User: Fold this.
Amino acid sequence: MQPYFHSVTLEPENCKGCTICIKRCPTEAIRVRNGKARILELRCIDCGECIRTCPNHAKRAIADDFSLLDKYKYTVALPAPSFYAQFSGQDMTISRILQSLLQIGFNAVFEVAEAAEHVSMAIRRYIESTSIRPVISSACPAIVRLIQVRFPDLIDHLAPIHAPVDIAARLAKEKLMRKMGLEREEIGAFFITPCPAKVTAIKQPIGFQNSWVDGAIPVTTVYARMLKVLPYAEDTPGLQQASAFGVQWGRATGEEKAVSVPRRLAVDGIHSVIEVLEEIEMGKFHDIDFIECQACRGGCVGGPLTVQNAFRGWANLEELTKNLPGEIDPGIEREVNRRWEEGFYSLETKIEPRSILKLDDDLSRAIEKMELLEKTVEFLPGLDCGSCGSPSCQALAEDIVQGLASEGDCVFVLRDGVQSLAEELLELASQVPGSISDRETSSKKTRLRVGEKNKGSSPARPGAGRQP
Assistant:
C-alpha cells in the first residue's frame, strides 16, 4: 500500500499532553502516550481541527513556500475564493488583490472562483444523470477522507467531479500552453490554500493519479507578502473574471447556491457534517438532491490557514461581490456542456474506502481479537473521559487489542486495581503467622505483664495454706 502523505504534523516539544486534541479529532486519529500526542496516519484526514484547537501550538501544517516557484519557467497563482476574504476596505477590489499577486512573484493568475463556476454546472449535470440521493459535494477533501474513514457506505453519494482547484490548474495551463507555446512541465500552478486538507489533496490526489497543481502555499504566507504591495496595487482590467456565484464558493452556502438544484442544503463544521452523514446512513435526506459539506465552520473562510476571523471573512466576501455579475457567463455553460461529454470534469478512478481497523491478517486470529475487543469494551467503565490518552473507551479497547495500550492506562481500572490490591495485602497480613522473633517478643511481653500483676499482690505468709 502506498504510504499516506499528511500535511498535518506534530511539534513534540510544544506538546503538553493535555488531551484536548483527542476529543476534537473527528476520526479519533490522535492518542496521548507518555505525555505526548501522536497521530495515527491511517485515521488522519488532515482536516486541521487539531491545529485550530491545540492551545500549545503543537500541531502545524506542512506546505510549500515561494522558493518552489524557482523550479518553473512560468508560474501562475490560483487564489482560492476564501483568499479574497482576508482583505477589506472601501477601495478594495478583487482586481487589486489579483494584481498584488503578480507583484509578489507570480507571472499570471487564474481564479479558482472561475473554475468553481465550471464545477457548479458539472455537478448539476451529474445530479441530472443519476438516481443517487442525496449527492454529496466532493469539493472539500477533508470531507472526502472523512467519508472514506468513517462512512464508507456513503462513498457512492460523493459527486465524482474534480474540485475547482484541479479544474483551475488545468484550464490555466492549457491556456498558457496555447498562448505561449510552453510545455505543461514548464508551468508551475500554485494554489493559495486556506487549509491543510487541500495540501494533502494536491500531494496525494483521490480519484485520479496526477494533479495539475504543482504546489500549495498557505494563505497566511501569501498574505504577509501581500501587505507590502497591496497599497500600491491598481485595478487592472481583465484580471477579475468570476461572477459572484464563483467567488461565494469561499463561504458556506456558496456552492449549493451556485449548483442551484431544486432541493439542496449546506452543512459546515465537521462535527455538524458528521451528524448529517450519520442520518444519511440511516436512510434520511433521500428527498434532498444535493448537500454541500464543509469541514470548516463558515466554509473555507474558516480554514485553519487563514488570517481573518471566519465571520469577518464572510462579511468581506459579501462586500467584494456586491458589484460582481449575478449570473454565470453563458459562454462557460456552453464550454461545460461540450467538455462534459469529453469527461473533462469527471474523476478518473473510483474513490475507495480506507481501512482503519485491521485486527489481523489471519481471519481466525482476527475473530479472536474481535471477541477480546468486545469483552474489553464491556470491562471498561464507558465514561469516554480521555484520561487514558485515547478519545473513548471503545478506542482504548481497540488500542489494547492491538497492543498499543493496556487496561492499566484507564485511571478508573487502575484505581480499582490498586484498591483491590491494598485490600488483599491487608487480608494477607492478618493471615501470615509471626516469626520466631515475633513470638519471643510476644512471650517476653506476656511475662512482663504477668510479673507486673504479681508484683502488686501481698506476699504469702509462712505456713499459709497449710492445714493445722
The chain has 18 helices and eleven strands. The longest helix spans residues 411-431. The CA atoms of residues 98 and 161 lie 27 Å apart. Residues 357-432 form a domain with the 3-methyladenine DNA Glycosylase II; Chain A, domain 3 fold (CATH 1.10.15.40).
